């Protein structure tokens, strides 16, 4: 198994490395077989240097081409009472590279990117109880779910149960993705029918 110290990785927006779209799509499909990573081509073509954006963790290898070993997508949070924030989704590390500290490293790099390049002061995400420990190590804390409003979540459509939730606005031109499945209502969210917890982290310059 690869050692933590031997892995040479960096994080960058997918739209700056369009040669890695197929590698990224493969990772997302392996992680969520119901997902639609073929949409990455259009997403990367439309994205510039702001939100939303797909960030990829790239492994740089000596005698082989770069490969995507991690992915996280940052989406705009529109809740009026929150300072500029990003919602994180489709967070994954390649199955062969898990347990090596790469997930932790990718999240820290994504937080730095969001703070330095996007001016984000907070990060939000939903997680299952089974991954809560991972985010707690990164200092994420529970947040009341009903206050979260977003724009353009879940374009990769990996949730088999709900295509969107009541607080989400479609991204212009991408309305069709939400015909894939039902919208989780306020009541459904209250009952935590996603089976998920909302977490938040304040970002700082340290
Ligand atoms: C969750 C995921 C991103 C973690 O990535 P990873 O590279 O394996 O995690 P790391 O090796 O960086 O782990 C960092 C720390 O979190 C801990 N950790 C990792 N996964 C955990 C989990 N599911 N529950 C609790 N703790 C976890 C590790 O033990 C490690 O702790 P340590 O520093 O004390 O040793 C990865 O397992 C994954 O891609 N899973 C499938 C997709 C998924 O579930 N995404 C999250 C959706 S909310």
TrEMBL record:
This is N-acetyltransferase domain-containing protein. It comes from Patiria miniata. The lineage of its organism: Eukaryota, Metazoa, Echinodermata, Eleutherozoa, Asterozoa. GO terms for cellular component: cytoplasm. Pfam families: Acetyltransf_1. SUPFAM superfamilies: Acyl-CoA N-acyltransferases (Nat) (SSF55729). PANTHER family: N-ACETYLTRANSFERASE 6 (PTHR13538), N-ALPHA-ACETYLTRANSFERASE 80 (PTHR13538:SF4). Residues 9-172 form the N-acetyltransferase domain. One of its GO terms (molecular function) is acetyl-CoA binding. It comes from the Eukaryota.
